[in-house]
Structure formats: structure tokens, C-alpha cells
């Protein structure tokens, strides 16, 4: 389903979505095809977003497009002090 269709079916509300297809360009992910899991009340939107995994997201239908910023995976580096001891 296209985002424009979702916006017509669920005007002015949050929806939980499963991303079916997307592409990344210049550090942004452009969502092309989605499946609606369920509409979400404003009160539960943050809770549902935190429970979302992998290709699921919560987005508000007042947004004309679904556009996500892709962030690099920043991992904490651990320095083992015992490595350098003789």
C-alpha cells in the first residue's frame, strides 16, 4: 500500500506500519510500500513506537511522506586495561 492511500484511510492519526519496500539515498530512507498493522491513539503512540522492532514504525498521517534519517551504528569501544600490563 502507498502512503497516500494510508493517509486517506486514516486521516490525522498515528498508524503502526510494516515497511515492505524502501530505498536509501544520501543518508535518508525513502519508504515506498507499507502494510498497515493498526491505527494508534495519540496516547499510545510513543509506547507502540518503543515496542516496534525491525521494519515496523509508528508515523502520523499528517506527514506527506515517510522519510527517515539513517544513522550509523555507533558502538561503544571498550579499552581493556589488562592487555597492556606485563
From TrEMBL:
It comes from the Bacteria. This is Uncharacterized protein. It comes from Terrihalobacillus insolitus.
Amino acid at each position: 500500500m502507498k502512503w497516500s492511500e494510508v493517509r486517506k484511510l486514516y486521516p490525522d492519526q498515528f498508524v503502526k506500519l510494516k515497511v515492505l519496500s524502501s530505498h536509501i539515498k544520501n543518508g535518508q530512507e525513502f519508504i515506498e510500500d507499507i502494510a498497515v498493522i493498526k491505527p494508534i491513539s495519540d496516547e499510545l503512540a510513543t509506547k507502540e513506537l518503543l515496542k516496534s522492532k525491525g521494519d515496523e514504525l509508528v508515523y502520523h498521517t499528517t506527514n506527506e511522506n515517510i522519510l527517515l534519517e539513517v544513522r550509523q551504528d555507533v558502538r561503544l569501544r571498550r579499552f581493556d586495561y589488562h592487555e597492556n600490563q606485563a
